[in-house]
Amino acid sequence: MATLSAAGRRDAESRDYNANLAECPGHQLLATLSDKWVTLVLSALADGPLRYSGISRIVAGASQKMLTQTLRKLERDGLVARSVTPSVPVRVDYELTALGESLLPVQRAIKTWAETHIEDVATAREAYDQR
Amino acid sequence: MATLSAAGRRDAESRDYNANLAECPGHQLLATLSDKWVTLVLSALADGPLRYSGISRIVAGASQKMLTQTLRKLERDGLVARSVTPSVPVRVDYELTALGESLLPVQRAIKTWAETHIEDVATAREAYDQR
DNA sequence: CAGTATCCGTCATGATACTG
DNA sequence: CAGTATCATGACGGATACTG
């Protein structure tokens, strides 16, 4: 068969796009940064190292599952360092790596845009909604 | 009742956190920016106005539903302007607003960080995975 | 203290079909 | 051309219970 059905072509394009997206550094970063808990954990650690319980106190809304999952992800990406002190009971400290700290300015840039323009967005939404 | 159960307290904290997050400008922006299709549509329009079909050609992997949904969201937030020409058949043009364009530098900043540090992340992941 | 294991509801995504 | 409507599914977050 030389030709592809329209559906077949769409499928192929879709696969290509998804594959490209998955590999795109920018999108990977956005996926990480936009994670609800990632944001909070990162800012919690911005002020210095914390123990597991410390983080969970600051990021009060996180379930254990989400907190651990988030910390593992950040550790895997080299943004956060995890150090275990094998006392009884064990003590685990988390802190930002240099890589993790280099992300803070980006976070700030986003925050700045948001704070600067949130009013405009809110206004636009109101205008759009009652119409 | 003066006291709350542990579960009750967690619930309350969770509600507070989620409410705060939902209102947090930074997180709203991140939620928008990290959307797969938002990113692509925004960069498609960065080069100038496009018609619906033009966007769908460039952002080839998007279903009609997702494309329309994304465009509506962007329009609602005032990032994109939609103009209908009531010819037969109808013609609809989309273009970035000033607000939308002001977002492009932020996108670039993210892209730059990602491209600069993606290697480090990849290395960290490898180190973490085979362990 | 710092997790792991498991189950379950919801919610967004995307495929398909239809329309002014 | 530029959408809207509907439906299935699958990933994800959260609650709960258990452990070294």
Low-confidence stretches of chain A: none
CATH C-level class of chain A is Mainly Alpha
What is the CATH architecture descriptor of chain A? Orthogonal Bundle
Strands across the major sheet of chain A, in which order? 1-3-2
> What order do the SSEs of chain A take from the amino end to the carboxyl end, as H and E?
HHHEHHEEHH
What is the quaternary state of this protein? homodimer
| Distinct helical segment count of chain A | 7
Domains of chain A, number: 1
| Percentage of residues in strands of chain A | 5-15%
Q: Average pLDDT of chain A, to the nearest integer?
A: 89
| Shape estimate of chain A | globular
Global structural class of chain A? mainly alpha
Secondary structure: number of strands of chain A: 3
CATH topology name of chain A, in short, is Arc Repressor Mutant, subunit A
Helix percent band of chain A = 55-70%
Protein name (chains A, B): Helix-turn-helix domain-containing protein
Pfam families (chains A, B): HxlR
Keywords (chains A, B): DNA-binding, Transcription, Transcription regulation
Domain HTH hxlR-type (chains A, B): 24-122
Describe the structure.
- The structure is a homodimer of 131-residue chains.
- Chain A is mainly alpha-helical and 131 residues long.
- In chain A, 67% of the residues lie in helices and 11% in strands.
- Chain A has a three-stranded antiparallel sheet with strand order 1-3-2.
- In chain A, a hairpin with a 5-residue loop joins β2 (80-85) and β3.
- The longest helix of chain A is centred in the last third of the chain and has 26 residues, at 104-129.
- The mean pLDDT of chain A is 89.
- Chains A and B meet through α1, α2, α3 and α7 of A and α1, α2 and α7 of B.
- The first copy, chain A, binds a DNA duplex (20 and 20 nucleotides) through residues 7, 10, 14, 36, 51-53, 56, 63-69, 84, 88-92.
- Chains A, B: InterPro entries: HTH_HxlR, WH-like_DNA-bd_sf, WH_DNA-bd_sf.
- Chains A, B: This is Helix-turn-helix domain-containing protein.
